[in-house]
Amino acid sequence: MGTEIDVHLGKRLRRRRRLLGLTQQQLAGACGVRFQQIQKYECGANRISAARLWQLSEALEVPVAYFYDGLSAAAQERAAACESGGGEVLASKETMDLIRAYYQLGERPRRRLLDLAKSLNGDGEHG
């Protein structure tokens, strides 16, 4: 297993790839590696070189800094996730499908869907 940084970058890589609906094979093809290499990056087993990180950022249409977002808070998030038991909610396919569908909607339907979700949860406050 890699260092905390390698694991963090891998999680950010996986999250963005899934959000875009790309398979590991598709991302690997865009970067000129085999899908097994993407698997190793995503689990933090292999370090991502600076050049490869640049290729991944181009393929995933994000700045390189995206991969480092939240790094300092990663340890705190893991501790909170362990306490709440919901640390992998964003990693589930169902959640990613929901997020993808949500962002395909226009602004007004998104707001209405958010209001509906809040009302179903019994949250009368609409921030």
Keyphrases for this structure?
mainly alpha, about 0% strand, 434 Repressor (Amino-terminal Domain), about 130 residues
What does this structure look like?
With 127 residues, the chain is mainly α. It folds into 2 domains: 4-85, 434 Repressor (Amino-terminal Domain) (Orthogonal Bundle); 92-127. It has 7 helices and no strands. It has helices at residues 4-19, 24-31, 35-43, 50-59, 74-84, 93-104, 107-120. The chain starts with a helix and ends in a 7-residue tail after the last helix.
List the topology elements.
Elements: H1 4-19, H2 24-31, H3 35-43, H4 50-59, H5 74-84, H6 93-104, H7 107-120
Helix pairs in contact: 1-3, 2-3
CATH H level, superfamily name of the largest domain: lambda repressor-like DNA-binding domains
H/E element sequence: HHHHHHH
What class do helices, strands and sheet pairing give?
A: mainly alpha
How much of the residues is beta strand, in percent?
Answer: under 5%
Q: How many strands, which pairing sense, and closed or not: the largest β-sheet?
A: none
Oligomer: single chain
Broad CATH class of the largest domain? Mainly Alpha
Fraction of residues in H or I helices? 55-70%
**Poorly predicted residue ranges:** none
Number of helices: 7
Rg, Cα atoms, Å: 17 Å
Structurally, the number of domains stands at 2
Mean pLDDT: 83
> How far do the termini sit from each other?
40 Å
Shape: elongated
Name given to the CATH architecture of the largest domain? Orthogonal Bundle
The total count of strands amounts to 0
Q: Could you please say which CATH topology of the largest domain applies here?
A: 434 Repressor (Amino-terminal Domain)
